[in-house]
Specification:
mainly beta, 8-stranded antiparallel beta sheet, 3 helices, globular
């Protein structure tokens, strides 16, 4: 059975459209590049524990939501803290402002950017999305999910808003799992249902089990299924904390995620004596051993059905060079959301920007840094100096042009062969360069192969291939 891809973008992050038996090129994960600091959170109500950032674009206005709270007291974890939901906005996604909302009082004044505080509920997280359901009423266009642990146990609650600022609490979504993470939700326009990802445990509960990610769905954002643990292509049972799962904006039939790996070593070793932040780490352990022993990084995952994921086992983000403020539990939590931004290399294609916060557990203001990736470039087929091939399963496409996102060295090359079931084929000329939108030139009419099963063969040398799509033929 041929896979009908029409003219949709197909990222090459897994083997869904590839024939593994005929493919010798390897799938490889690519790391982002750290850029500049975009925000600092030093307001009195922001404390030193700003985290769980998530942002979205609303008709040209970027809206960001985050938690603000006091996490440390001279290196200790305080026994009681108030968590506030705060808000920032931007017209370009790079330069952010914290508007005075006048909604919540802090130290006798409402001149702040606090969106919600403990007078509404006790927050542990707050995630906002714009509902893409065509039947969504205007007063519910913005939806949010938040988790907390009340007297009756842990629960996940819905919120809604017409303007992204004034939120009212809604129904309880679930009380089956643990929700002390950035729980996420969205309306899947391909599957026509709401999807949420939350934190759970298996092989035991909090303190004894393994942290995992669970999925639940709903047709109407009111009635939800029971949660089910997502599965992975590998057999590693690695604790996962935040999930940051979303449909990829350029290919909404494909999910991506950037969960943090929670790595808690069993005991203090001599390496901890050498690792940066020793003194504060020791003091945090007086409150809980895991506050000193646990470390986090981040991996890249992708899925076609939202339930089974391909996981790249090496870190997408590492804590990085020791600077006295990193290598802690709370490193490498990417904000939910991404945007295209101009490249620092004048004339080059736009990049994808993501944000990651720093300075967790340090008693100093949180800072938010920008990271950039190539568009579609989280992973891809990668070949070194020895030529290798990638061959697709039978595909059906529409249009008359093939467009590739690829990069080679000066010596490197890429050749493309398209063949139908009768053995008719097209051959490309040699491709080389570095482009996110390269039209492939063939020795014949590509549109003659549209609408019938074909296989595509990529012959690669010193080349990375990230995505492909077919398109209507452009006029020269």
């Amino acid at each position: 059975m041929a896979i009908n891809i029409g003219t949709r973008l197909e990222p090459l992050w897994d083997d869904t459209i590839l024939d593994p038996a005929k493919t010798t090129a390897e799938l490889r994960r690519f790391s982002p590049v750290k850029r500049e600091k975009v925000m600092e959170f030093g307001e009195p109500w922001e404390g030193d524990g700003c985290d769980y950032f998530n942002f979205l674009c609303d008709n040209g206005l970027w809206r960001m939501y985050y938690l603000a709270w006091k996490i440390t007291e001279d290196g200790y974890v305080p026994s009681r803290h108030e968590i506030r939901v705060c808000y920032a906005e931007s017209r370009d996604g790079l330069h952010w402002e914290k508007p005075s909302l006048g909604l919540c009082e802090f130290n006798g004044s409402k001149e702040n950017n606090i969106l919600l505080d403990e007078h509404t509920q006790k927050f542990d997280n707050f995630f906002v999305f714009i509902d893409q359901n065509p039947d969504c009423p205007p007063e519910s266009r913005f939806k949010a999910v938040t988790g907390d642990h009340g007297a009756s146990g842990a629960y996940l609650r819905a919120y809604e808003s017409s303007d992204g600022i004034h939120f009212t609490p809604g129904s309880m979504i679930s009380n089956e799992d643990y929700y002390d993470t950035l729980n996420t939700a969205f309306y899947d326009t391909e599957q026509r249902q709401y999807v949420a990802y939350v934190r759970g445990f298996h092989d035991g509960g909090f303190g004894s089990g393994v942290r995992d990610i669970r999925r639940l769905t709903s047709p109407d954002f009111v009635d939800w299924t029971s949660s089910r643990q997502i599965t992975f292509s590998d057999e590693l049972d690695v604790p996962l904390y935040t999930n940051v799962i979303s449909p990829y904006y350029r290919a909404p039939h494909v999910y991506i995620g950037f969960p943090s790996r929670y790595i808690e070593r069993k005991a203090w070793t001599k390496n901890y004596d050498r690792l940066c932040g020793k003194e504060m780490r020791r003091r945090r352990m007086e409150a809980s051993a895991r506050y000193g022993l646990a470390l986090t990084d981040c991996v890249f995952i992708t899925s076609r059905d939202g339930a089974h994921f391909t996981r790249y086992q090496d870190a997408f983000l590492r804590p990085g060079a020791e600077n006295g403020r990193n290598w802690v539990y709370g490193d490498c939590y990417p904000a939910y959301g991404m945007l295209e931004t101009p490249s620092a290399d004048r004339g080059a294609a736009s990049e994808l920007s993501m944000f990651v916060f720093e300075n967790h557990w340090q008693g100093i203001p949180t800072e938010l840094y920008r990271y950039t990736n190539r568009i579609d470039g989280f992973a891809g087929l990668s070949v070194g100096s020895s030529p290798k091939v990638a061959v697709t399963k039978p595909l059906v496409f529409a249009g008359g042009e093939l467009v590739l996102n690829f990069a080679t060295s000066a010596r490197g090359s890429l050749f493309v062969t398209i063949e139908d079931a009768e053995g008719n084929r097209l051959e490309s000329g040699e491709l080389f360069g570095d482009s996110v939108e390269r039209v492939v030139d063939f020795d014949g009419d590509l549109s003659a192969f549209a609408g019938k099963p074909v296989t595509i063969r990529f012959t690669m040398e010193e080349c990375d291939l990230f995505s492909l799509r077919f398109a209507a033929q452009t006029k020269e």
